Amino acid sequence: MSAPTLAKEAPESVDEPILRKPSARKRLVPYWLLLPGIIWLLVFFALPLVYQASTSVQTGSLEKGFEVTWHFQTYWDAFTEYWPQFVRSLLYAGTATLLCLLLGYPLAYLIAFKAGRWRNLLLVLVIAPFFTSFLIRTLAWKTILADDSVVVDVLNTLHVLDVTSWIGWTEGDRVLATPMAVVCGLTYNFLPFMILPLYTSLERIDGRLHEAARDLYASPATTFRKVTFPLSMPGVVSGTLLTFIPASGDYVNAELLGSTDTKMVGNVIQSQFLRVLDYPTAAALSFILMAIVLAMVTVYIRRAGTEDLV
Amino acid sequence: MTDKTAHTGKNTGGDVRLTGISKTYGSFTAVHPLDLTVPQGSFFALLGASGCGKTTTLRMIAGLEDPSTGTVFLGDKDVTDLPPYKRPVNTVFQSYALFPHMDITENIAFGLRRRGIKSVKKQVDDMLELVQLGDKARHKPHQLSGGQQQRVAVARALINHPQVLLLDEPLGALDLKLRRQMQLELKRIQTEVGITFVHVTHDQEEAMTMADQVAVMNGGRVEQLGAPADLYENPQTTFVANFLGTSNLIEAEVVETGTDVVVTAGGGKLRVPGDRCTSAVRQGGKVLVGVRPEKISLAHADDAGKIADGRNRVTGRIADSSFIGVSTQYVVNSPAGAELQVYEQNIERDTRLVPGAEVVLHWNPAHTFGLDAAQDIDAGVETVEDAG
Amino acid sequence: MGMIRWIRRNLVVIAGLLTLAYMILPNLVVMAFSFNRPKGRFNYSWQEFSLDAWKDPCGVADMCESLSLSLQLAAWATVGAVVLGTMIAFALVRYRFRARGAINSLIFLPMAMPEVVMAASLLTLFLNMGIELGFWTVLIAHIMFCLSFVVTAVKARIMSMDPRLEEAARDLYAGPTQTFLRVTLPIAAPGIAAGGLLAFALSFDDFIITNFNAGSTVTFPMFVWGSAQRGTPVQINVIGTAMFVLAVLVVMAGQIITNRRKKTATA
């Protein structure tokens, strides 16, 4: 550099200005904040997945112990043996998600736009069932759908059960222990997870947009199709995910409301892990389920084009 | 830069002095190294469009932003490395930042309590009285109007008797009428308490009505510093000429130098006092000749003979006129320059002065100033996008 | 004709209320059957009215023990998840740092994973490590899956908070600790409370992950699951009904208090 200049008035001539940088302590603050929680997730969420991956390629028996033999055959065996359960899981979870959307949208819309001073009461009624253990509530469906119950009688009289039996959703005049009972239970259990995100995104829509659409010659149906529904997409996407993901791995509804013909993949994983104690098969099944769900979720999020889900 | 206050012999113990202070974010320079002295007890305004670095400068004084280079002095004390809570400086934030979970009393008492002062009642009551909000002591901020919230923000800062009060666009969220009222109110409070106020604003009228000293900032640099009238009458750059009020700037060529510089523009000759030219002028060189719209008189071409000798004249045709009430504003196209602005007081209105009329603009040469022609002639002109 | 038009005009309201009925119906059944006197071991069909179960809610072996265990678990899981989750949320909103994307995915993934997968893999870990299953393994699991939900709730609140409020506090002589305690925390409190409530509900009601990792420890959902196999005591319905009624009362009381506060504030 040149010799120190005598000119004091021009700040630009100050040699090598000392650049201040945030102190090291300050820069470490976020890492200290993240550390405990992230370690928790790494050790108790990520690491277990690694262990499970390893288990899925082990062979052996409970008595002699298991060891890693890179036996990928387990995946193929598990899939060929249990593919009906996989198909059933995705079918039931998909149907339940669709039903949740169809049933949940009107209620979310009602609360967001039409409830007026009843809004808070309705919200409480949506959330309140949560406070009774979901197992107890699911057991209540055993009573509601029992063979001699009012609901089944009405469905029978209206010949609804004839149709559902014909497509294989029910058997004769029974509802309990059929696919319909399981889907009904899944739909019921995950409805709040659909309604709350839907409500949140509907509530953000400016009511004047409806007026503007109607002012610009849109019928109520067109207004919904072109304005309301597109604006509620973030709610639709997160609602369907929050419903589909847990529903696909659920085994409680299939166990309590279904029969041996309605077993889902969750039931298989549970019994392989806790009763049969065939850990490699259970681990492989669980990985296949995870892969399918993550793949579907990724494609779905891409297609729906919503990034801000959480 | 020489310390002006040293010559006046005033106590400089409470001056704010910034030396070589700058702020860069990555490759973006928000504030170029600048020197600035705010004399104790003055009402000082930092004026500029958004993004000019005025708020960053203010935040560096507050300690909310660490300067990349340079030093901040309060009096003789270097406070550059002190965190905001150790500086005897308080801020009135843009949109006020009143604590929503505390009532007005608790908001105002916040600073005192943090410094371990237990009996705050008397001081809070005095403050509430100063800002005329005695009856709102137990209200929450969201229950007050914008103007009332603004006064709470001022009270919350002033109760700490800071050496300097910083105001960051404090009137930005208020409507025009309330703004004017609050400007006078703030001025009154400043005179009453005698604390140095540093006020950041983009509103040139606000800066000129309130401040003793105004620093006009543009692109991270101070364009010009001075008393409001001085800035208005003697702009040093096209930015200041256009940003503070309106200026007619005419591109001209120098034909004669001396105490009066003679220039030609659009075929006519104009005179500019030599000491009002900011850059050295030489024969044949270019210069921007400026004159404020209200200094110009307008005469119909038929009356051209009645104009006194020795005045600068420009002939043209009225393109547009709008009646404002106290004045009429004309837009005149002339060979010397397009769209020249003229503000005429509505004393005796000449009914012949309608769009299309041939006119002569004339003014006292003493009101003319000359600027360096190398600058952008439209710098600082407010455009529709800026206003939005 | 008028009838049909009325239905068409109010289609959304009718459909919405039908959905609501669908959601409330099981709770009403649970409530009604808490007054039943079942004939066999199962409480699925109505026999006759009785107050027996309400008079002796803890009359079933091990049920109230499992309930108290679940409440303790939920309380500790809430504390753990709220502390860890709030810290993460602050780091994510307020600071720039490396590996941000990876950390965001690590937080999102537990919410995008079927519960049974997490349950099974966690069990694999515990088995491999030779850790004895029980209260602690369940607590670890609950904190793990509640964490992400707390982060999401708290993050939303902090993001909507004006950073100038904290600057104002620092400007008014509050040091970092004081700023956090007097300004940041009180303003973030609703988000933290929402995250905590969610964590409590999720933990208290969790069955799948608990079932895999509890060993011989029996939480309330596990007790209900077991009784679905062996025979459902009426007391289960009593507990379910009591909690439902209690929750509705608490929410309504809260609503009344805030309404009243609003009224006095504007008066």
Q: Tell me the CATH superfamily of the largest domain in chain B.
A: P-loop containing nucleotide triphosphate hydrolases
Mean pLDDT metric of chain B: 89
Structural class of chain B: alpha+beta
Query: Oligomeric form of this entry?
Result: heterotrimer
Q: What's the architecture of chain A, going by CATH?
A: Orthogonal Bundle
Judged by helices, strands and strand pairing, the structural class of chain A is mainly alpha
Number of strands of chain A: 2
Which residues of chain A sit in consecutive blocks of at least 5 with pLDDT less than 50?
A: 1-17
Work out the helix count of chain A: 13
Shape of chain A: globular
Model description:
- The complex is a heterotrimer of chains A (310), B (388) and C (267).
- With 310 residues, chain A is mainly α.
- Chain A has one domain: MetI-like (MetI-like fold, Orthogonal Bundle).
- Chain A contains 13 helices and two strands.
- Chain A has helices at 24-56, 73-114, 119-127, 134-144, 150-157, 160-166, 179-203, 207-215, 220-231, 233-249, 252-257, 265-276, 279-304; strands at 58-61, 65-68.
- In chain A, strand 1 (58-61) and strand 2 (65-68) form a beta hairpin.
- Chain A is globular, with a radius of gyration of 28 Å.
- Residues 1-17 of chain A have low confidence and may be disordered.
- Chain B folds into two domains: 4-88 and 162-238, P-loop containing nucleotide triphosphate hydrolases (Rossmann fold), CATH 3.40.50.300; 246-373, OB fold (Dihydrolipoamide Acetyltransferase, E2P) (Beta Barrel).
- Chain B is built from ten helices and 20 strands.
- Chain B has a six-stranded mixed sheet, with helices on both faces. Chain B has a five-stranded antiparallel sheet with strand order 13-12-11-14-20.
- In chain B, helix 3 (104-114) packs parallel to helix 5 (146-158).
- Chain C is mostly helical.
- Chain C folds into two domains: 2-52, no CATH class; 61-232, MetI-like fold (Orthogonal Bundle).
- Helices cover 77% and strands 0% of the residues of chain C.
- Chain C has helices spanning 2-9, 11-33, 52-55, 63-94, 100-108, 115-129, 135-159, 163-171, 176-205, 208-213, 220-230, 234-266.
- In chain C, helix 4 runs parallel beside helix 7 (135-159) and helix 7 (135-159) packs across helix 9.
- The longest helix of chain C is centred in the last third of the chain and has 33 residues, at 234-266.
- Chain C starts with a helix and ends with a helix.
- The model of chain C has no long low-confidence stretch (mean pLDDT 90).
- Chains in contact: A-B, A-C, B-C.
- At the A-C interface, helix 1, helix 2, helix 3, helix 4 and helix 7 of A face helix 2, helix 4, helix 5, helix 6 and helix 7 of C.
